[in-house]
Design a protein that fits this description.
single chain, Split_barrel_FMN-bd, Pnp Oxidase, Chain A, alpha+beta, 204 residues, TR_PAI2-type, PaiB family negative transcriptional regulator
Length: 204
C-alpha cells in the first residue's frame, strides 16, 4: 500500500485496536490465475505459538479457498472511516482530497481442521453475541445445526507484515486542520463525524 511517510501509522497498539474494531475485511489471494476477493470477518489473535494471526472461514462453495493449496500468500484489507475533504475548507487555493484510515495485512494462510474449526467458530460467535440480550452459544446448538460446519473451510493467517495508513490532514497547519474538523461536523454523516473525531485525537 502506497503511504507517504506523514500518513504512516506505526503505533502497534493502535493498529491492533483498529483491527479488532474493524474486523470485517476483504480477503484477497490468487486462485486459478485470477485475483479473488471475499468480504468476511477476519479476527486478530495470538496463537499458541505466540504469533499474531487472523482467523476466519469461507464456504466450501467459494472457489477462492482452492488457491490456498497452491499459494499461501494472502492480503487482507481493512477499512475504517473515510470522508471527502473539500478544498473550499482551506484558507488558500488547493485541490480536494480524501481522509481515511486503512490497514493492509500480509500473511501466510493455513487451512485448519477438526476441533480447531469449532473453536474458531466459537470464538467468532462469542465475540459478537456477548452484548446481546439472548446470546447464542455454539455449545448449545444441536448436532443437526452444527452439521453445517462441514460446509466451510476454516483457516489461520500467520501475519508477516502490516501496513497502516492514517490520512487525517496531518499536512495542514493548525488553523486549516481545525477548520476541516468544523466543516466535517457540518456535513454530519457517520463517516464525516468519525473522521473529525479521529482528527481531534491527533491535534496539529
Amino acid at each position: 500500500m502506497y503511504t507517504p511517510e506523514i500518513y504512516k501509522n506505526e503505533n502497534q497498539e493502535e493498529i491492533k485496536k483498529f483491527l479488532l474494531e474493524n474486523s470485517f475485511g476483504i480477503l484477497i489471494n490468487q486462485t486459478n490465475g485470477k485475483l479473488c476477493a471475499t468480504h468476511i470477518p477476519l479476527e486478530l489473535e495470538i496463537n499458541s505459538e505466540g504469533k499474531e494471526i487472523l482467523y476466519g472461514h469461507l464456504s466450501k462453495e467459494n472457489p477462492q479457498w482452492n488457491g490456498f493449496l497452491d499459494n499461501d500468500q494472502i492480503l487482507a484489507v481493512f477499512s475504517g472511516p473515510h470522508s471527502y475533504i473539500s478544498s473550499s475548507w482551506y484558507d488558500h487555493e488547493n485541490v480536494p482530497t480524501w481522509n481515511y484510515i486503512a490497514v493492509h495485512v500480509y500473511g501466510k494462510v493455513k487451512i485448519i481442521e477438526g476441533e480447531a474449526v469449532i473453536e474458531s467458530l466459537k470464538k467468532l460467535v462469542d465475540k459478537y453475541e456477548q452484548n446481546l440480550e439472548n446470546p447464542v452459544r455454539i455449545e448449545d446448538l444441536s448436532k443437526k445445526t452444527m452439521m453445517q460446519s462441514r460446509g466451510i473451510v476454516a483457516f489461520e493467517i500467520e501475519i508477516t507484515e502490516i501496513q497502516a495508513t492514517k490520512k487525517i490532514s496531518q499536512n495542514r497547519d493548525q488553523k486549516n486542520h481545525q477548520n476541516i474538523i468544523t466543516e466535517l461536523e457540518k456535513v454530519n454523516t457517520n463517516q464525516s463525524i468519525s473522521i473529525a473525531n479521529e482528527m481531534k485525537k491527533c491535534p496539529i
